[in-house]
């Protein structure tokens, strides 16, 4: 007879009494039984009496309840069913040492019951009706759910079988049935891509399973998927799919591959013919577009690449993908990436930054060269007119000296206080030399003369361009720059200098990357760091980093009474999980050297000892994310404002929503959405304000804080441009003002560095701006484009040298 163990305290006490009255128990079960006690135990072990237990692991009658997916929450077990002769019932036993019922039932089966692992039991084989083994139950559950079309329910059971019982005889068939039937169901539901993925997995896993039927299904699904892709304009995805299928099924005839290879060739021939017609009609832009689309549709189309080369020779054109379009053009703009980038095409700067060096930037004087005296108190500007192109060769020394003098004259529209503080006199030595006498030794006076040069310097109209290109048209997402008339006159018939540079604004980083890979654009001016890593794997794309980082910050831009308080701004810092936004949202979990949270307004450099970080105090640790402290500071600030209002008899300021503005690009939007969510967690009302395309700073009374990506590349110069009363932050803080003045009086690099570190410390505590993080920006271009250069600080720095290879 089968015996049941105790399940609760009642049966435990009964068994104890039984044992004390003379019953014996050994390691494999009861050998002498008190029958009166046994009847009580059996009664207590019915399902009704154990309903309050956590799980039923045995019973005298019936079968275990059907568990469904809940079965997987239980530990693996076998179910032993007993014969009527043994009084019936069942137990859940820990996995048995045998995995099949013996042919000749002799001897006993030893087992442990789930939940009573400390007790050992034994039952004669002839008292066991059957055993429902764990793996067979999993197989049964899997098969039943596949038959019912419940593939989500079948998957967990099948996964456990694959993991724990990979050699089961029927597993291959079961797994194949799952893939086949699931693929059919997904195809019926219109999930073509998912259906194809399952069919291909089935073919790889079990190539002999319904061989011809599966291949036929792959062909039909492929045809349907390709049709949908082409109709939706997803030609890139369709091309990739077709190329993959052509390679993987070279030994299998897929009718869909043959059909779509012919169809793409037909479309490519249409584009090629359209390109030839456009070329004949001298519609070079259309010809270029059609020719590239033709080769993209069918890379080996006869004459396709030769046609592209011919068009590029006749009319070189470069398409540049951008995330921000420019509406204003200023190559020295601190806070507007697009304006700075496109401004370099249209305008030259008196002193242009060419690269970064160990002691500040390296600058080029566009009218010649410079020489500074040994005592660093005299700077000579030497004009070399004979070497200059038109119109730069028309500059006159007295005009240039006058412009430099106006820059140092209070009240002038061109007045710049750092230059006024640096220079004491400006003189002319003949027609080709200007001498600037400095008040004190100045380590980098050239950086103070970054002045935009327009056509008025040469007798032209104010604002007219001096670069090699001029703005042609802005239409939709396109901004077209064409060679200026003066530059165009120098272009010969076989000159390959780009006649046009077209900026194509992309809605997202992924869209821009897709266009670059397809050849729709030739360059991409700014990459998400994760996209830069992915693009480096492409054999057709070159990826490079700009040598100077950008500093991302929040800049107060209104008279919002709370934002104006440093305690409240400090609360905003503590309420912003900058590390999480940077690494999780912007870097997508990638580790990018140089991308880091910062504690101040100056670049930290890329490495620990990077000379580019000469203004950054590494001993100042960026404030951590502490929302509870942020809430405390908000309440403290509110209390102080209430007390001050009562003392003065004024109205207590109300907390109005904080209007957080951001430029119309994807990176800024992602960052600001995350910032808003975190500020709202501490109870602050926030409204997001997207700036118009091309704008980086809001109009008055339209926002309270603006997200800025600033090119703080020369802290000696940019400290005032950023923090001064007329700078981006418009700070009137006296300590900030004193720090700026002392910086401008520095006589050597040691004093420059020491005073910048002090200014960093002041900015860290006073928070005229809220520092976020430093980003290392990258650009990418197709490798058939040469002359881009390395270490460039602006994308168009060498645009006049770009050529097609």
From TrEMBL:
Solute-binding protein family domain: residues covered: 492-692
One Pfam family recorded for the sequence: SBP_bac_5
Keyword Coiled coil: yes
Keyword Coiled coil: yes
Keywords: Coiled coil
Segments forming a coiled coil: 228-255
GO biological process, one term: peptide transport
GO MF, one annotated term: peptide transmembrane transporter activity
Protein name (Swiss-Prot/TrEMBL): Extracellular solute-binding protein
Organism: Stieleria varia
InterPro entries: SBP_5 (IPR039424), SBP_5_dom (IPR000914)
